[in-house]
């Protein structure tokens, strides 16, 4: 066991690929990064981090993305803030009870 530096620039929310050969993380600027890992029984050799794509995942999100079995990403993104002219959404609960009256 030991500690290895994967990114000198920092990063957050690491996830392993299904096969354990890659490590993904989000760089401080929001870029999804990938690091190929070469391992043997006695060695661990992280490769160079490669940028994959830009994200806009929220910092407060506990689990903003997942690596699905086929290697693609499922990402929870943040949309732009609502505009002042946007109509509110009204959710009506128990609407069937109102029909009985």
Short description:
This protein has 101 residues and is mainly beta.
Describe, in plain words, how this protein is organized in 3D.
The chain is mainly β. It has a domain at 12-75. The protein has one helix at 95-99; strands at 12-16, 22-26, 31-39, 44-46, 50-54, 65-67, 73-75. The N and C termini lie far apart (69 Å). 7% of the residues are buried.
Write the layout of secondary structure elements.
Layout: E1 12-16, E2 22-26, E3 31-39, E4 44-46, E5 50-54, E6 65-67, E7 73-75, H1 95-99
Antiparallel strand pairs: 1-2, 2-3, 3-4, 3-5, 6-7
Contiguous uncertain segments of 5+ residues: none
Secondary-structure class: mainly beta
- Range of strand content: 25-35%
**Arithmetic mean of pLDDT:** 80
Q: Order of SSEs, N→C?
A: EEEEEEEH
Overall helicity: under 10%
Amino- and carboxy-terminal Cα gap: 69 Å
Please give the count of helices.
1
- How can the largest sheet be summarized? 5 strands, antiparallel
What is the count of β-strands?
7
Q: What is the 3D form?
A: elongated
Q: Give Rg in angstroms.
A: 21 Å
């Amino acid at each position: 066991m030991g500690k290895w530096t994967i990114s000198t620039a920092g990063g957050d929310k690491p996830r392993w690929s299904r096969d354990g050969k890659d490590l993904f993380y989000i760089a401080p600027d929001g870029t999804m990064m990938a690091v190929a890992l070469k391992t043997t029984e006695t060695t661990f050799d992280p490769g160079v981090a490669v940028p994959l794509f830009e994200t806009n995942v929220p910092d407060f999100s506990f689990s903003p993305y997942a690596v699905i079995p086929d290697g693609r990403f499922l990402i929870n993104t943040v949309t732009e803030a609502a505009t002042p002219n946007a109509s509110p959404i009204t959710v009506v609960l128990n609407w069937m009870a109102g029909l009985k009256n």
